[in-house]
Amino acid sequence: MLVQRRQALATLGASLLAGPRHLTAQPAWPSRPITFLVPFAAGGASDVVARAIGNRLSQTIGQPVVVDNKPTANGQVAARQLARSAPDGYTLMVGSIGVFALNAVLYRDPGYDPVREFSPVTLAVTTPNVLVVNPNLVPATDVPGVVAWMKANAGKVFHATSGIGSSPHLTMELFLQRTGTEATHVPSRGGAAALTDQLAGNTQISFQGVGTVIEPVRDGRLRAIFVTSAEREPLLPDVPTARECGMPDFEVSSWQAVMAPAKVPDPILSRLHAKITAALRDPGVEQRLRDTGYRVVANTPEAYGAFQRAEIERWRGVVTAARISLD
Question: What pLDDT digit, counting tens, does each position of 67-93 carry?
Answer without folding.
Answer: 999 988 888 999 999 999 999 999 999
